[in-house]
Amino acid sequence: MSLFVEIITPGQVICSKEVASLVVDSAVGELEILPEHRPLVAILETGSTRLKFFDGTTETIATSSGILNLENNRAILMVEEAVNIHELRIISSVGEAKLLAKNALKMAAARGNLEQSELDRLEAKIRAELNKKLKK
Hints:
The chain is α+β, with helices and mostly antiparallel strands.
């Protein structure tokens, strides 16, 4: 038995696949969902969504906050943004990562996708993560 997963943003369907299990970051913590799970609606936090396949491979998709609706072995994740991490290019330095993140936030704010408070929160989160990486 498998679980059908769709990851949907306002602009497109990012993913539509049959998986052995799904791991999401929810407001109550990390959830792993297997086939035959009871119906569930959950608030998703920004983080990574992992699709685990029957052959043992895993696909990771970076997702923003949103909602998970699970019913009848069908999981639909409705999120603002999603990117398959295998499609991202490798960033060569922390400075480049910081610059790219700031530019992405500015573009989202200019499009009206983010309120100023959300923009400030994300920028603070980026600073904290970069500081942790620099201390290692």
